[in-house]
Design goal:
Layout (H helix, E strand, L loop, with lengths): L1 H13 L5 H21 L7 H9 L2 H11 L5 H10 L1 H12 L2 H36 L16 H4 L6 H16 L5 H18 L2 H14 L6 H26 L3 H6 L1 H6 L7 E3 L3 E3 L2 H12 L12 H11 L3 H5 L7 H30 L3 H13 L9 H10 L9
Antiparallel strand pairs: 1-2
Helix pairs in contact: 1-2, 1-7, 2-6, 4-5, 4-6, 4-18, 6-20, 7-9, 7-10, 9-10, 9-11, 9-19, 11-19, 15-16, 15-18, 18-19
Length: about 400
């Protein structure tokens, strides 16, 4: 049973990049079996200590809409949100009651599953992209980095979200660096991941990647290693700056980080062209309109499950018709909680994140520190808790990877 449980965990992590539906099923079976196997040999009952553990685990995220359900005018939407949040509760319970052996070995299977899943999915995506590039008979090689072959189009074969997949690549980098693999193999895997990030072009993903690269400097023990590392980093940045003015300024990655970023951060851009391609409403235009709605019910919000109804009204009132037509969510987890649960709900989530970060930092749990920093950054641009891949990722990494990463 012990080995079966761990293999379910491994394959749920491996399939996360390919099919979150399959990953959800495998992870749910893992959680149930781990809970049953653990509770058979445990005398733990529902006591105060366990309740406090549940409040420090991702299950807290599940309890918020659960409590809000009874006070909400949007009960069907609140119920749907609770169903989506079920992995938060299942993984938290299974972690509390799982056997010590499962907790101890889980990190090996999780890290192996993520490394393999990211690697296999990137290889598949590269093959599809390069084949399409070859079939289109492009005249210039650098066209491979154009809009036609990157960002959402690169990820289309697996229907992956750029930012959510970039989080898995960042985590994979950590696992690769701390693995027992040969240095040459590590370098190859890290380069594949870097190329993947370049093709994915998630701005938040690239930001967190640079933070990860910078933070690594403080973990290099030898002075010569630090000197070589810093020199290499400076050389790469210098090369990019030099090439930017001659060869690569038209590459879509740099447009994402300059023209499109500037457009998205201008609150006056509604019903305007994004990089001369399509018409849309900028993210800041939406956030500004949402902020006005939040001011009407700042403390307790509009109720669990209210986001869609509130946003539709906001977009219509502010003539953000592209956002209304495309059913955009808040694209900001903090604004989501302000809408649905107000300052009270957002404060609970912030306390949850900060509390876990402080505990991880005190325990020198560097994986959890990195992951929480990544979550904080991603939540500024995405409803990370509300998408299935985000739910599964948080459920796994904030339970079985909290303090036994190896």
């Amino acid at each position: 049973m012990h080995r079966l449980i761990l293999y379910l965990l491994l394959f749920s992590c491996l399939t996360l990049c390919f099919s979150f539906q399959i990953s959800t099923i495998l992870l749910s079976v893992f959680a149930v079996l781990s809970f049953i196997d653990g509770i058979k040999s445990s005398n733990r009952s529902i006591e105060r200590k366990i309740v406090l553990e549940l409040l420090m685990l991702p299950s807290l995220i599940f309890f918020l809409p659960l409590v809000g359900y009874f006070f909400s005018e949007y009960k069907p939407a609140a119920a749907s949100l609770m169903i989506k949040y079920l992995p938060f509760l299942l993984l938290s319970l299974s972690f509390i009651y799982s056997k010590e052996g499962v907790r101890k070995d889980a990190h090996k299977y999780i890290s192996s599953g993520i490394i393999l899943g990211v690697l296999l999915s990137l290889i598949y995506l590269f093959i599809k992209t390069f084949y399409l590039f070859y079939m289109n008979n492009e005249e210039n090689l650098h066209a491979i980095f154009s809009y036609k072959y990157t960002y959402n189009r690169f990820l289309a074969p697996l229907n992956l979200h750029p930012t959510y997949f970039s989080v898995l690549i960042i985590i994979s980098n950590y696992f690769i660096y701390n693995s027992n693999l040969l240095k040459k193999i590590k370098c190859v895997l890290l380069l594949i991941n870097l190329l993947g990030l370049i093709f994915i072009m998630s701005r938040i993903g690239i930001l967190v990647y640079f933070f990860q690269v910078f933070a690594l400097l403080f973990f290099l023990k030898k002075r010569i290693s630090r000197i070589i590392y810093v020199s290499s980093f400076i050389a790469v940045l210098t090369g990019i700056v030099i090439l930017y003015n001659y060869k690569i300024k038209d590459i879509y990655l740099f447009q994402r980080l300059s023209l499109e970023l500037a457009w998205d951060l201008n609150y006056t851009n509604n019903n305007s062209s994004v990089n001369n391609r399509e018409f849309d409403d900028s993210r800041l235009a939406r956030w500004a309109a949402i902020a006005e709605a939040i001011k009407e019910k700042p403390f307790f919000g509009y109720g669990s499950g209210s986001e869609r109804e509130v946003l539709d009204a906001v977009y219509r009132k502010n003539e953000l018709y592209h956002s209304l037509e495309r059913k955009y969510n808040t694209h900001n987890q903090y604004l989501f909680y302000l809408i649905e649960n107000g300052i009270v709900g957002l404060s609970l989530i912030i306390l949850f994140i900060v509390g876990n970060f402080v505990k991880a930092y005190k325990n020198k749990d560097y994986f959890s520190c990195l992951f929480l920093i990544t979550v904080i950054a991603v939540c500024f641009a995405e409803n990370y808790f509300n998408r299935t891949m985000g739910v599964l990722t948080i459920s796994i990494f904030m339970t079985y990877m909290k303090s036994n990463y190896g």
